[in-house]
Amino acid sequence: MLILQLFSIFFYKRRILSSWEVVYITSYDRFTDELTRLLNVGESFDVVKRRISLNDGRNCGLFYVSGFIDNATMERVLEYFIEYKDTEMLKERVAFGEVSEASNAKDAVNMILSGGTAFVIEGLDKIIVIFCRRYPNRGIEEPQNEKVLKGPRDGFGESMINNTVLLRRRIRDPKLTFKLVSCGKRTASDIAVCYIDDLVDKRFLSKILERLNKIDVEAISFGEQSIAEQLIRRKWYNPFPKVRFTERPDSAAAMLLEGSVIIISDNTPEVMILPTSIFDFLQEADDFYLPPLTSSYFRIIRLLIVSLTLILLPLWYLLITNPGFIPPWLEFIKLKEPGTVPVIAQIFIIEFIIDGLKIASLNTPQVLGNSFSVIAGLILGEMAVDIGWFVPEVILYLAIITIANFTQSSYELAYALKFMRLIMLVLTAVFNIWGFLAGLLLVFLLIVSNKSVGGGRSYLYPLIPWNTKSVIRFLFRVRLKK
Q1: Is 476 exposed, middle or buried (0-12, 13-18, 19+ CB in 10 A)?
Q2: Of 291, 284, 301, which Cα lies nearest the Cα of 403?
Q3: Average pLDDT in the 290-313 region?
Q4: Spatial contact of 249 and 271, defined as CB atoms under 8 Å apart
Q5: Contact, 71 vs 40, CB < 8 A?
Q6: pLDDT of residue 91
Q7: Which H helix or E strand runs over 189?
Q8: Distance separating alpha carbons of residues 367 and 409, to the nearest angstrom
Q9: Which of 210, 272, 297, 341 is most buried, by CB atoms within 10 Å?
Q10: What are the contacts of 382-386 at 24+ separation with CB within 8 A?
Q11: Is 435 within 8 Å of 429 (Cβ atoms)?
């Protein structure tokens, strides 16, 4: 009788274990082997694989990247796994971070490399991934390029989560939406498409999402610029930028409230604003933190200075090569001495020297900054004039142009205007006044032919199509109304 009872107990347990082997133990072994292979465990020192035992005796495999994990939080999470026997409690009882499931090892690998911890448990045919991650990132700092006299000093950072919080803090609207997209076969970069649901143009939004989903590249290595190159169907000969970047959360929030789409890329301390017209580059955050009269004055001055950066140098060269065009009240612009080097060559040499100084300043250690300034002053100062390389008038006008380039924050627009200025100089030197007029026409045609991303707005809006209210708002900062 005792032998029969022992046989029945053994047979019962064997039947239970057989069902577990089919469903659970096989999944555990398969998932563990696949994750070990896909994560290259043993080769990468920061990829960790551990095995723990639960209270009921089942094995649990852990996979994570050590640099992403908050150790204190992970210890508290492990207490739940050791204490509870019911695996259904994972989503209901674990109160730390985001809990997700993965039905295959490939999906789990993507989550692990995004900072998740994968739990492979005997008794589950899915992989549980808990996100108790901690990304290494800078704190919130003041933007380097878009400084303001008044207003907040916070700027976007490299953490996409922090960047979304900066926008949520300014727009407490449930319609504010962040749609996550992943791009890059190897990098699997996280990209958030941000918009306000009842303000955005739905057709334009669908085009942007469609283009993002069609991006088929190995890597998105350089953040917003890599995304922009994939989104924009840009003609190489047209240098005018089609997208606008900003490091300021208040500027991004203001554009969202006007119906724009913001693209946030992880690891990038700036966001992309779509759609964009050329006049959007001429607006700055200070315009909205200063009184209307002061802001309007700065806007008009900024527009005039940007225009001067384009036409001042070609126009001056046209006049000094055609003295008959110079009216008596402009006699002072004539050259006192022509110099040993042709004026057009002097202009190009100084333009290239200035760009060389910009590049060198980026690579110069901070402790050598003062010495670098002295050397640059000697090159472009009195010594260069005394030797006979340059005439004082050329240095003066190039200095004015260089300072004017810094009156607007868009690096892309500054160099687009620079390229157009050099082309106009060449045309003016070769074809005289007809070359100058042809250069102006070329600039106009390039701006008119430029299309905004997705066709959401004309590049010359609000001039084309004409919108009187928007033109007035662009030129003059009006008071806020109800």
Answers
A1: middle
A2: 301
A3: 89
A4: no
A5: no
A6: 53
A7: strand 189-196
A8: 26
A9: 272
A10: none
A11: yes
Angle at 443 between CA 442 and CA 445, to 5 degrees: 65
Q: Are 97 and 50 in contact (CB under 8 A)?
A: no
Residue 34 main-chain phi, psi, to 5 deg: -65, -45
Backbone angles phi, psi at 40, to 5 degrees: 60, 45
d(CA 226, CA 421): 27
Letter string b/e over residues 403-420, b meaning 16 or more CB atoms within 10 A of that residue's CB: ebbebbbbebbbebbbeb
- Higher per-residue pLDDT: 424 or 388: 424
**Mean local confidence (pLDDT), 422-446:** 94
Closest listed residue to residue 420, CA positions, set 449, 448, 444: 444
Name the residue type at position 172: R
What's the token pair of residue 200?
């955005």
DSSP letter at 45 equals T
CB neighbours of residue 462 within 10 Å = 18
Tokens of 390: 């340059």
- Report the predicted TM-score, pTM, of the whole model to 2 decimal places: 0.82
**DSSP annotation of 245:** E
Tell me the per-residue pLDDT of 205-258, one tens digit each, with 9 for 90 and over.
999 999 888 888 888 877 777 888 888 777 778 889 888 999 999 999 999 999
User: CA 193 to CA 198: how far, in whole Å?
Assistant: 15
Q: How many CA atoms lie within 13 A of 145 on its CB side?
A: 15
DSSP string for residues in 279-304? GGGG--GGGGTS-HHHHHHHHHHHHH
Tokens of 62: 């852990």
Strands of 244-246's sheet in order across: 176-183, 189-196, 261-265, 271-274, 244-246
At a CB cut-off of 8 Å and minimum separation 6, what does 258 contact?
A: 199
Amino acid at 153: R
Strand segments, DSSP code E, in 275-400 are none
Q: Distance (Å, rounded) from C-alpha 424 to C-alpha 441? A: 10
Can you tell me the distance from the alpha carbon of 302 to that of 282, in angstroms, rounded to the nearest whole number? 7
Q: Which two tokens stand for residue 279?
A: 């006049």
Q: Name the more confident of 126 and 84.
A: 126
Cβ(85)–Cβ(55) below 8 Å: yes
What is the Cα–Cα distance from 283 to 477, expressed in whole angstroms? Answer: 10
Contact, 479 vs 292, CB < 8 A? yes
% of the chain exceeding 90 in pLDDT: 26
Handedness of CA 285, 290, 296, 301 (dihedral sign): negative
